Amino acid sequence: MKNPFISLLMKKLDPEKDRAKAGKRSGILGIVCNILLFAGKLLAGLLAGSVSIMADAMNNLTDATSSVVTLLGFRLAEKPADEDHPYGHARFEYLSGLAVAALIILIGFELGKSSFEKILHPSPVTFTWLTVTILAVSMVVKLALWRFNQSLGETIRSTALTATAQDSRNDAIATGAVLLAGVIEKIAGVPIDGFMGMAVAIFILYSGAMLAKDTISPLLGEGADPELREKIVDYIRKQPKVLGFHDLMVHDYGPGQRFATLHVEMDNREDPLTCHELIDDMERECLKTHGIHLVIHYDPVVMDDPELNRLRACCEKLLQEKDTRLHLHDFRMVRGTGHTNLIFDVALPDELRGWETDLTNYLQETLTEQEGIAIYTVITFDPEAFNLPAAE
After folding, report:
1. If you ran DSSP here, which 8-state letter would residue 257 be given?
2. β-strand 292-301 against 327-335: which pairing, if any?
3. Of 242, 264, 239, nearest to 330 (Cα)?
């Protein structure tokens, strides 16, 4: 069912097709709402003499600034590719999120200092119905912004808007805590305003740190989204003539700018032109369906050599005895007069790094003893993150 908030703001605009426009409209909405909330809370905080309310007001001002940065990020991200940036400028969306995180952390630090001063030198808080009304309205507005940005972020698959949504939800929680502190102080007469202001500041710092983590990760080159990877793998697995696949690497240059490479295994007896045509079809379908530029490398697999197949199965069995997560691919055999070379790749989990020499020696010694001739294993160890077991 379509979200009513999206329907209202995105009238005559398809959020999926007009991604940048949708993001910019969300940014404008955030700027307007957060500036109004900042003004209202600042007035309430000054009238009540409450540092926690003013801290919450500054948090809204930070959110307004964040919306400006997000708006700018979407605007820059839609710039087309050029000679210097052939993969486009979509990563500006991640950079805008990082700038927002830095600003949030800075404001949280400053608010923490103010709250600490209030703890050391407490002063009475004048809590009125006006204050209650302003804070209650703020919570309602923030919950509405949370629902809107969450739905829109899921629709256009934007980490920036999803982070903005979580920030709005957190703001509603923080405002509720400030409201609770005011009620407690008025009823019980316990001066907790400074402590609540410190709690809000810590909450802001934590939110900024988590947002920084979420935006730095794709910039550093995080692994492929598991859902996207599964969609690609499921599609490739169902294709005729594909015996297996490995080395799936996805490169994210920002929303809508994803590139990937993959090796697929096919019987060496198949017509190369037929295999090439099938690979072209798979690449085009992945771009059309999943929006990812996929380049597939063709790996011919020898299927009609009983000796090679036997040794391949033997190597796979020996690896599995060491650890069930170990798998091999790209298996080749070079026969010699005095020895035989077995050349293949092994997907190695991160936890097993450092096993390379031991595994190579183990396979060589065991196979040499079993076969009665010298067996040399030439192994390339690949990160497990880029590899999956061959399709059945």
Report:
1. -
2. unpaired
3. 264
